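Exercise: predict the fold of this chain.
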Amino acid sequence: MQRMKVESFSECLQRTLDEEHMSASEAARLVGFRSRNSMFRILAGDTSHEVDAKFLAAFREAIGDAWPKERFDALEEALNIKRVGMNEYRSYQAIGAMINDQETSEPVLVRSINADGTDEEHALLELLQPMAQCAKVEIVMSSCCQSAISWTLAEAFNRAGEEGRVSMRHYVYIGDDEVAQNITGILPLVSKIWYNARLIDHDSCPPEMVALYRTGCLFIIVEDEQGGKQQHQFVLYDKGRFAYGKKGGLLVPVIHILDTWRYKLELLKPVLRLEGRAEDFVAYTAQYAALEEECAIYSIKPDVHFNCLPTQLLLGAVTEGFEQAGLAEGAELNELMAALVKIHDARNANMFTKHRPTHLVYSMPALERFMQTGVQTDHFFIQRAYTVEERKAIIRHLLQVAAENPFFHIHLLRADFPEVQNEITLYEGKGVLMLDAYTGYELSENHSEALITLPAFMQKFRSYFVNELLRKHVLSPAETRAALEQMMNAV
């Protein structure tokens, strides 16, 4: 993954002063420094984060509106880098992008050399789509942990993969300096049943393997109905840009050598799946109940979690939904609802009464839509919409639990936080679950979710959630309560 260009706080401050034609002496005078040496130490990077933060607060107050807001936003960001360290900062950036990640519109490009020496450039997707029509496809990739590449592979091969014609193994480096960036880069692929990640780190692999891994290559073998095979190789030479060739070359030995070393296999648990039967809905909630049980939960999604819906309200909406959809009725429906009530009561009790930290982060616009429509962003298609009184009861219940249980917290994102596209939840000690925040959980379609069980990634996500998301991007508890009460009064 390409490194992001960042400035230290001292570098950012010096550049800002230069561009605003302000001397260090003048800056020192504005904040009341008795000696210019204090200012020079800050510009040299010889001061602590606390000293820099105190200076920036005083400097911002002294400047007021004379400078554009963007100046101080950049300084705050540089100060944040100093607070958490460069490695952690890069992880925070990657995880923040993952929350808002959606299919990229920028094509991954491929450059190929013709027999006459001329070269051509194509979109990777255009080259992959004909391969996906073949009887069998084997994909091997090393490095290349970029969202654009992952989206392209998912779009090209997912249908063939679901049909059992595609298999993919991917070598992913999980060293502490890159684990968050690399795991977030493969988010579009991790829940695919045809995708298998093989993890590389310094503890399990020699340095030679790590160096070889960084070659960054994609190797595809396609087989036709008659058993004829053809090899295609792509070597990443720039971010989002491959060189392409057929048969032989660098990739074959690279892949064979990578396969000779030992590697860790467990990146994700088997995906949670729905197969299209009415009883799957109840079995699905039981899987979640087991995952949630007695662990700390750190979650971000657009609006109210399914397991936060009071059981009686959920029961009414689901029972009517099952009847309207014709999925179950009579004795069968009663049996299913009895099982659901038992599971959901346990989920409610676990969510609202356990003495483990629970932090739920929601988007204000999404919650406002829920309060107006009674439909969640991930509303199960078998649920009817919640009535106005039911919506109010759901929010009142959340506020009551937050007031009574010191371990349970709800937060609203600040208005400047980008739209949440993926629901991401850390079940501490068990894994990080990721799925599309706007899924409808159609039982007739293949629905899958990735549970990343890699301890290093769990640690990175928790650090981001506690030290970045809750610290910088949510309203205070009082502001959150006031906003939620206002939403209830508006319907």
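Check your answer against the key: Residues 262-266 have pLDDT under 50 and may be disordered.
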